[in-house]
Design a protein that fits this description.
- With 294 residues, this protein is of the alpha/beta class.
- The protein is 26% helix and 24% strand.
- The strands form five sheets. Strands 4-3-2-7-11-9-16-8 form an eight-stranded mixed sheet, sandwiched between helices. Strands 1-12-13 form a three-stranded antiparallel sheet, covered by helices on one side.
């Protein structure tokens, strides 16, 4: 078998049938030991209009889920245990645990939502002009998948985590049109039309196709074209490293997949070097925080 011991990183599924009153935006995420920053992440997105958070806990031991319960109302939070490593029983290929969580969320929760976003706790979705994320998505109601490019932030000169949180302190990022090796996308989808699941792109009605945040259509392989790039309505900030101390912790944790440790370190540092090679100042997140807080 050519695929023996490779990771199964795509799953297909029959999409759920939407409920008559399905509405709003939900976020699906998988977490492990994110207590240090998850309160800021959850509070920001709740204030930005996210109706519900579907959280898959991959064996956290630092109180991550307790923090979430402390900052989000019960009606806005679902937490599921998801501490596992599963593999194909014949070829031994590991099943990507994040992809498995995404497929589970789509089938078991997707029927109640107009939109589901699939991001991580180091990623923030920012409504650039609109007051909130659902309003920013209104213009895309005829579409089923929105791809948001990473805007990658590095250490920003911080040796240790600065007081005041991530959004106020990390203001230097790379240009997505220049940082090709570290570039990727995260997606917001109509769950009732998803037929294939990957971390960075979904099949819609059997095809890997979707729009950017202003409705420009492209296949997944064509998202790298300059004409597809946009941050006019929603910007996705990816705080890849945060402080240098947190970068070292990220390296020490290893990958969420079974990979060689040295390869993981080289990959992380290659991305960090690219992010920090040529940066621009970006105060959008800080401005939105001020808007949220009146």
């Amino acid at each position: 078998m050519l695929w023996r011991n490779r990771t199964i990183s795509k799953l297909t599924l029959t999409p759920p049938i939407g409920l008559p009153n399905r509405d709003g935006l939900g976020i699906v995420l998988i977490v492990r030991n994110e207590a240090a920053h998850i309160a800021e992440w959850a509070q920001f997105h709740h204030a930005a209009g996210v109706r519900h958070f579907i959280v898959y806990d991959n064996g956290s031991t630092d109180g991550t889920t307790a923090v979430l319960r402390g900052v989000l109302p019960d009606h806005a939070l679902t937490i599921l245990p998801w501490d596992q490593k599963l593999a194909d029983g014949r070829g031994g290929a590991e099943i990507h645990n994040q992809v498995l969580a995404y497929a589970h969320a789509l089938r078991n929760f997707g029927a109640g939502f107009r939109w589901l976003a699939f991001i991580d706790t180091d990623e923030f979705m920012l409504p650039v002009v609109a007051d909130n994320l659902p309003t920013a998505l209104n213009a895309l109601s005829n579409h089923a998948q929105v791809s948001l490019p990473w805007h990658m932030f590095g250490r920003g000169g911080h040796d240790t985590p600065p007081p005041g949180g991530i959004l106020r302190n990390y203001l230097l990022r790379s240009d997505p049109l220049q940082a090709r090796h570290s570039q990727n996308w995260k997606c917001i989808v109509d769950p009732t039309r998803v037929t294939g699941v990957r971390v960075h792109g979904f099949d819609i009605d059997g095809a890997g196709i979707g729009v950017n945040d202003v409705g420009v259509l492209a296949t997944h392989k064509d998202r790298a074209n300059r004409a597809f790039y946009s941050r006019a309505a929603i910007q996705l900030n990816h705080y890849y490293t945060r402080s240098d101390a947190e970068l070292q912790a990220k390296i020490n944790r290893g990958s969420n997949k079974t990979v060689d440790a040295q390869k993981h370190i080289k990959r992380v540092m290659r991305i960090v070097d690219e992010i920090e090679r040529d940066t621009v100042e970006d105060r959008l997140a800080r401005d939105i925080l001020s808007r949220q807080q009146g």
